[in-house]
Design goal:
This protein has about 70 residues and is α+β, with helices and mostly antiparallel strands. The chain has one domain (about 10-65): 2-Layer Sandwich (Metal Transport, Frataxin, Chain A), CATH 3.30.920. It has two helices and three strands. It has helices at about 10-20, 50-65, and strands at about 25, 30-35, 40-45. The longest helix has 13 residues, at about 50-65. The chain is globular.
Length: about 70
């Protein structure tokens, strides 16, 4: 498993995701790929621009099945 540093705003989401069996990988373009155990994939920016984008990404992860 390759490790990389997540932005602080994503760390709580990442802990919940990994505990639920999700995997998080960094893509070549600088985005993060969040893959659920069921196979759903959500792409987020590796460095979000503001608080609203983090909240929007969290909502997208919830819609994909992550219980936050």
């Amino acid at each position: 498993m390759t490790t990389f540093k997540l932005p602080e705003c994503y760390r709580e989401l990442a802990r919940a995701a990994r505990a639920a069996g999700w995997t998080i990988t960094r893509r070549r373009g600088g985005h993060l790929a969040w893959r659920s155990p069921s196979g759903a994939v959500v792409f987020t920016p590796a460095s979000p621009s503001d608080r609203r984008s983090v909240r929007n990404n969290a909502a997208e992860l919830r819609r994909a099945g992550l219980a936050v």
